[in-house]
Amino acid sequence: MKKTKIIFWVVTGILAVMLGIGSIFDAISAPEAVEHVTRIGYPAYIVPFLGVAKTLGIIAILVPGYPRIKEWAYAGIFYDLLGAFYSHIAFGDGPDMWAGFIVGFALIAASYIYYHKLQRETLVAA
Asked: Is 63 left (phi over 0), alpha (psi -120 to 50) or beta?
């Protein structure tokens, strides 16, 4: 169980940092974040909403307990990343942009899998 817990927290920590930095810039409508989102055709007013939603999702994943909220948070973060990935592909951004998305998908998947593995191990140990 200790190994599972370490892997979960390392992967989830990296995910939280990776998404958290961008979500804070989105939440405060930093000019770079607004320019990035408007460049691919979205309105500027969506930026702070997405930033706050991502920040809340990250908090939900990091806070112990609340399994139903965690499930929704994982789903929301996955759909946010999937929508951003699709938007960049549709806009014409090439494969050089895809690496960050692939890493993000791998981190979300690993965090989700190890979260459930940790939950099972906790139930068996109890």
From this structure: beta
Q: Per the structure block, which two tokens stand in for 14?
A: 């990296």
Q: Is the separation of the CB atoms in 1 and 123 below 8 Å?
A: no
Distance CA 73, CA 59 (A): 9
Q: What three-state secondary structure class fits 16?
A: helix
Is residue 35 within 8 Å of residue 85, measured between CB atoms? Answer: no
Q: What tens digit of pLDDT does each residue of 79-113 get?
A: 999 999 999 888 888 788 888 899 999 999 999 99
pTM exceeding 0.85: yes
- Do 19 and 112 form a contact (C-beta atoms < 8 A)? no
Question: CA–CA separation, 86 vs 16, rounded Å?
Answer: 22
